[in-house]
Design goal:
Length: about 475
Amino acid sequence: MNEGSPIMYHGNGYGGGVYMVPGQIDRSRQYPLEMLQVLSSAGRGNGEHGQGAPRRWQARRERQPSNKDNTAFSYDSDDSSLSSNASGSNKSSEKGEGSSRAERSAVQTAGGAAPVQQQQREWRARPKRDFRPRRIPLERFATAAYPSQIKFTPDDLLNGSKWDSLSQEIWDKFMKSQQTDETFRKKMNLWRYLSMAIRSMFPRYSLYVVGSTMSGFGLDNSDMDLCLHVRAHQHVDARAQALLHLNYLLDYIRTFDSGAELIHAKVPILKFRDVRNGLQVDLNCNNVVGIRNTDMLIYFSRLDWRVRPLVTVTKLWARAHRINDARRRTLSSYALTLMVIHYLQCGTNPPLLVRPEAAHERRAHHNRATLAELFLHMLKYYADFPYEQMAISVRVKRLPLAECRVHDPHQWKWLCVEEPFDLSNTARSVYDPEMFEKIVSTFRESYKRLSVGLRLADAWPADR
């Protein structure tokens, strides 16, 4: 078949076909059969192509500027790349196109005139930036699938054993104390208001909700933890910079809470209260670790339905025994949460929880222990824990205390709970040996009393 001869496309069997000239398919230009016969006979009668004969299709060559240099994106390119479009291939990903779209449009609009030379930008590598949390839209938290209030009792809460009454008490305690959806909405409305107000005054500030409010381990009367993120300067002390920015906000916070105070701790905290909603707020600056471990706790809270009740009851139990206050040299709520997660990883057989990087090691036979068994055995686990030799960690299964004391021996003293991101001690507030003995004895006495009576009131102090 000749290159210029027409090709016949048959239809659906009705009537004659339609002839299309090669090269004109892209333009969808169709010629009736009778017209093509007249045009082709006119050319054959003269022994050459007549005026009405179809022309042989050829690819159109793009116009090349006369004064264009052979560079693209500041890199040298050879002549073969300049004719890539003419050959019908796309080689823009190899050495660069010979002419940019902007220059071709300039040629067409100017009627073939020479394009205006554009200044070439020198390519420079972007400097490496420190970790900056992604700025979350203000309306995302209202529709995100974060842990919300649990309103239904799981089917396997009771199994007909002697632990049923204690498991039911633990579950009822959790249902009455968990963070409700109404409290969550109040906190989100307060965060939205503060975020918009702070950004209007300081456009470079970002405000994030962290802690138990988002992780699902929060109580209905828990404080709201916020993190103010500002780009940190490399040559300025982090604590001094945090105090500087929190002092900027202190004047604004005191316009609606005159009792707001700035605590000059190792991690400075701005404490204030929202009187309208009755919310206590703790605001820190550039504590990016709090954003990371909040995501980690969300992950653990979703692995099993027993995790949230155990953490909630443990915090209530520690609060009743007055060992849940870091300002009074006892355990913080975050340290207690890590202790519960570590027990569910290493103190149960088979493990109820697994580390995020070892999710593929989860056994097929799940742990079927009840809430009562888990809570009772957790008290015994920490009553007999080798605090002098091991540290509590959710990152690794066994963490010798000697490895932790190599870098910073001052904060690894009595009770050691490792922060999995910056490898610090979240229980460094327990630096008093008398307070350490009180915490361990509380675990020991509560286990003895609870194992005898199997009533939740036995684990609580007598005066509560």
